[in-house]
Amino acid sequence: MFGWKEIVDVGTLSALFIFATLFFARKKRLKPLLLYFPLFSVYAAVIILDYMYGFPIARQVATLFAVLFIVVIAVVHQADFKAFFFDLSKRSSDRDSNNERNITDEDLSIAADEIVRACQTMAKLRIGALIVIATTSVASHITETGTELNATISAPLLESIFNTKAPMHDGAVVVKGNRILAAGCFLPLSQSQSIAKNLGTRHRAGIGITEETDMITIILSEETGTISVANHGELRRFITPDRLRDILLKTFNISQTRKMRS
Predict the structure, then answer these.
(1) What is the pLDDT of residue 111?
(2) CA 129 to centroid of chain Cα atoms
(3) Quick one: 111 and 231 in the same domain?
(4) Residue 83 forms part of a structural domain
(5) Is position 12 within any domain?
(6) In a domain, 86, yes or no
(7) Which pLDDT belongs to residue 242?
């Protein structure tokens, strides 16, 4: 007969399985769940049989494998778990919130124009760049990997940051509203197998952050001068300056009509 210890064990197992189900469902990865579910079922069955008929050795062996299995899952999916927990704890600073309240549509339109102008110049000069556009709060773990700037966006500033002789040119610039929050930031790399083999680390980083957040990224290739935009894990290449401006205005929630009237 089950006592309170057995109820706690079964409840803990159920909670872990529910968490795993929600986690992989959120990530839209059903294959790992289909693999892990039978293993979970076997472990649960061993525990139940031990309670009912007494198989202590089988339970000890199953527990050992369960611990090893949890370690393997943590290692294999460490990037996913890190992004998941950081996403739960993401926050904006009070200063960012105060700045955001004072931003007008005209400020955002000017910011979009400055970004486009910088991208045009850097594309012509074949300068690699990675610009992250945040639409909501920015998780602190992203900006903390770089250098805080909190500066108003301008084309010269973006061009100086990504100058190949600048110390922060290899990282990403994080933009929110009309301000550059930080530069030289490191982003999680996408593990997707569908990404073209000729795309390098910059493109994988640009795609990776959009798989975990609602941010979009602008990626400039130093090899081809191509402008690309990543959103929700999908990469659109060969973006023209006019198209890039439309994307930015849409991201900033500014319609062309409102821009023309201002």
Answers:
(1) 96
(2) 18
(3) yes
(4) no
(5) yes
(6) no
(7) 96
pLDDT of residue 110: 95
The mean pLDDT of 247-262, rounded to a whole number, is 70
Give domain status of residue 24, yes or no: yes
CA distance 215 to 131: 10
Number of domains in the chain: 2
Mean pLDDT of the chain: 83
Boundary-marking domain end, from 41, 76, 111: 76
| Separation of alpha carbons 119 and 219, rounded Å | 9
| Res 125 pLDDT > 80 | yes
Residues 189 and 205: their CA atoms lie apart, in Å, by 4
Residues 145, 56 share a domain: no
SS3 196: coil
Range of the domain at 214: 94-261
For 158, the token pair is 């973006």
**Residues β-bridged to residue 229:** 218, 236
pLDDT in tens, 18-47: 877 777 776 666 677 777 788 888 888 887
Residue 68 has pLDDT above 50, yes or no: yes
Tell me, what DSSP letter sits at residue 136?
S
What pLDDT score was predicted for residue 113?
97
**Do 53 and 104 fall into the same domain?**
no
Q: Locate all alpha helices (DSSP H) within the chain, ordered by sequence.
A: 4-26, 30-53, 56-76, 78-88, 94-101, 105-124, 140-143, 155-161, 201-212, 241-251, 256-261
Residue 184: which of 132, 134, 234, 228 has the closest Cα?
132
Radius of gyration of the chain (CA): 24
Q: Are 72 and 36 in contact (CB under 8 A)?
A: no
Shared domain for 212 and 102, answered yes or no, is yes
